[in-house]
Every structure is written in structure tokens, then in C-alpha cells.
């Protein structure tokens, strides 16, 4: 091969290299900052872009990839996630704990992201750490454990405002883990167990109280019902006795009328009835084998006289 051939081959290779450096293909959702002779020239859009080799150069940006900082010529405009390592924070009541945070952000102004900050991932990480320490320092332990949404909202607002000059939009912040010390966790577990026991005792006492109330109400209702039943029973018994006495009186009245009709008006019917009862009483006394002594009052002679009158009446 001649020298001319070598020269032609070298020219073709240089042309290919020149053409390759002239044409820059930018993927979708990415961009590139171009400097011409060390000064900002343009922000390339996705697609094919033409630059002047060796005069135009891409500005590198430090990014975080798999936990380490890398340099990249292209700038990713999609939402990115930074998972920061656990950091120590101190609450308002002097409890030290570890918190792990997730940060979701997006580059909205590539020019500011390149020229306004030197190490963007490190700046975001340090800003997140200091802001998180300030927010947690204003809260007590119980508030920190129960106010994740409040902490996330405050942290996002502060970071979004602070990173605005870097061309960054902080979309949301999430606290992954909040890890108090082992001694605090043990104390919290004991407190929770004591609280559960307290609630169990309260529920048990409330149940017993309700049971006693229901039992007393049942006994009260049973007593009232029993008293009402006895009352009704006494009323019915009294009414029955009254009715019986009325019937008995009516029967005696009828009997007196019949006796009056039988003996006539000249004889007192009351004496007749009294004599009958007296005779019946004497028959009861005379029953039995044992000797009996009967004491008769003085007025009994009148009764005997009535009996004699009745006897004479029946003889006639």
C-alpha cells in the first residue's frame, strides 16, 4: 500500500470520528449542557443534535448511582429517589434515635443543577440531614413516632424551598424507619403492656359493674313482681272472703226468714239459732271417753229457757 492510501484511510477515520463527535443523540427524558470554549452555549433536547467537535463539550454532572458518586454528561430529567443512610437525631426530650429517609426529587432546570451547585447529591443529602435534625429537635419522642405525615410535610416544604435555586423540585419525602434505642423500646413495650393490662382491668370492672347492675335490676323487678303478685293475691283473697261472708250472711238471712215463717212471729228467731248452736256445742263437748266439767255462765239459763220454749213450740 502506498502512502496516499494510508493518508486516505487516515482521513476517512478522522472524518468518521469527527462526524461521531458532531452528532450527539440524546435519549428521551434526558438532556445535556454544552459549553463552547468553556462557556455555556446550549441545552440539548432529546433527539439528534449537532455540535462542533473539540470546541463544544458537554458539562459533566455528579450523580448518585448505587451508593456512590459518578460523573455523567447527560442529565436525567425523570423523578429520582435518594435512599439516605440512617442518621442519628435527638428529640426535644433528649432521646437519641436513628431515622432513614427517602427523597423523591426531579431536576426541572438543568442549567441551575449544573452551575448553581457543585455536588448536587451530596448537597441534597446534607440539607436533608440538617433539616430533619431541626424538625425532630422540635418534637418529643411520642410526637415523633406518631407524626410521620407531619414530619414528611414539613421536611418536603423546607427542602423544596431550599433546593429551588438548584433547579430541583422535591416531590415528596418519606421516613422509612424510626429506631429508638433498645432501652427506650423496652420501656415502651412495658408501657404498652401496662396500658393493655389497665384497659383489660377497666373492661373487666365495667363488665362486672354492668353485670351487677343488671342482676340488681333483675332482682328489683322480681321483687316488684312478687310484691305485686302477693298484693293481687291478698286482694283476691280479701275479695273472696268478703264475697263468702256476703254469701253466708245472705244465706243466714234466708234461713232466718224461713225460721220466722216456721215458728211464727211470737218466737224470736235469734233464740232459735242460738239454741241450735248451743246444742251443737254441747254435743262436741260430750264426745269422748274422758270426763269433762263444763262451766256455764249465768246468762245460760236464758238460753235454756229459749230451748224449752222451742221444745214446747214443737210439741204444739
Spell out the blueprint of helices and strands.
Blueprint: H1 3-22, E1 23-26, E2 30-36, E3 39-44, E4 47-50, E5 56-58, E6 61-65, E7 68-72, E8 74-76, E9 80-83, E10 87-90, E11 96-107, H2 110-115, H3 120-137, H4 141-146, H5 148-162, E12 168-179, H6 182-263, H7 269-286, H8 300-315
Antiparallel strand pairs: 1-4, 2-3, 2-5, 2-8, 6-7, 9-11, 10-11, 11-12
The averaged pLDDT comes out at 81
Radius of gyration: 60 Å
Can you tell me the overall shape? rod-shaped
| Extended strand count | 12
What series of H and E elements makes up the topology? HEEEEEEEEEEEHHHHEHHH
Tally of contiguous helical segments: 8
Structural class assignment? alpha+beta
Oligomer state equals: single chain
What's the main sheet like? Answer: 4 strands, antiparallel
* Residues in helix, %: 55-70%
Q: In what range is the share of β-strand residues?
A: 15-25%
Distance between the termini: 192 Å
**Low-pLDDT segments, ≥5 res:** none
What does this structure look like?
With 316 residues, this protein is an alpha+beta fold. Helix content is 57%, strand content 22%. It contains eight helices and twelve strands. The strands form four sheets. Strands 2, 3, 5 and 8 form a four-stranded antiparallel beta sheet that branches. Strands 9, 10, 11 and 12 form a four-stranded antiparallel beta sheet that branches. Helix 3 crosses helix 5, helix 6 packs across helix 7 (269-286) and helix 7 crosses helix 8 (300-315). The mean pLDDT is 81.
Amino acid at each position: 500500500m502506498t502512502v496516499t492510501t494510508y493518508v486516505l484511510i487516515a482521513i476517512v477515520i478522522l472524518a468518521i470520528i469527527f462526524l461521531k463527535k458532531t452528532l450527539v443523540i440524546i435519549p428521551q427524558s434526558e438532556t445535556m449542557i454544552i459549553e463552547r470554549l468553556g462557556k455555556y452555549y446550549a441545552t440539548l433536547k432529546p433527539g439528534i443534535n449537532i455540535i462542533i467537535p473539540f470546541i463544544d463539550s458537554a458539562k459533566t454532572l455528579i450523580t448518585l448511582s448505587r451508593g456512590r458518586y459518578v460523573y455523567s454528561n447527560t442529565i436525567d430529567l425523570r423523578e429520582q429517589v435518594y435512599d439516605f443512610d440512617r442518621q442519628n437525631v435527638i428529640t426535644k426530650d433528649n432521646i437519641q434515635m436513628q431515622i432513614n429517609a427517602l427523597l423523591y426529587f426531579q431536576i426541572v432546570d438543568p442549567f441551575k443543577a449544573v452551575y448553581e451547585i457543585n455536588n448536587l447529591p451530596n448537597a441534597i443529602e446534607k440539607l436533608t440531614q440538617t433539616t430533619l435534625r431541626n424538625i425532630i429537635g422540635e418534637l418529643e419522642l411520642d410526637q415523633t413516632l406518631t407524626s410521620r405525615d407531619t414530619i414528611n410535610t414539613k421536611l418536603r416544604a423546607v427542602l423544596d424551598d431550599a433546593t429551588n435555586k438548584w433547579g430541583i423540585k422535591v416531590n415528596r419525602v418519606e421516613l422509612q424507619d424510626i429506631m429508638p434505642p433498645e432501652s427506650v423500646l423496652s420501656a415502651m413495650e412495658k408501657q404498652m403492656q401496662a396500658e393493655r393490662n389497665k384497659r383489660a382491668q377497666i373492661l373487666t370492672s365495667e363488665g362486672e359493674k354492668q353485670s351487677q347492675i343488671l342482676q340488681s335490676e333483675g332482682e328489683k323487678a322480681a321483687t316488684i313482681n312478687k310484691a305485686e303478685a302477693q298484693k293481687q293475691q291478698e286482694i283476691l283473697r280479701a275479695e273472696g272472703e268478703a264475697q263468702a261472708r256476703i254469701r253466708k250472711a245472705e244465706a243466714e238471712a234466708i234461713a232466718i226468714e224461713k225460721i220466722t215463717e216456721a215458728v211464727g212471729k211470737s218466737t224470736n228467731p235469734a233464740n232459735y239459732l242460738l239454741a241450735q248452736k248451743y246444742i251443737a256445742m254441747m254435743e262436741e263437748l260430750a264426745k269422748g271417753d274422758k270426763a269433762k266439767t263444763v262451766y256455764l255462765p249465768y246468762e245460760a239459763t236464758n238460753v235454756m229457757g229459749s230451748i224449752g220454749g222451742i221444745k214446747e213450740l214443737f210439741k204444739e
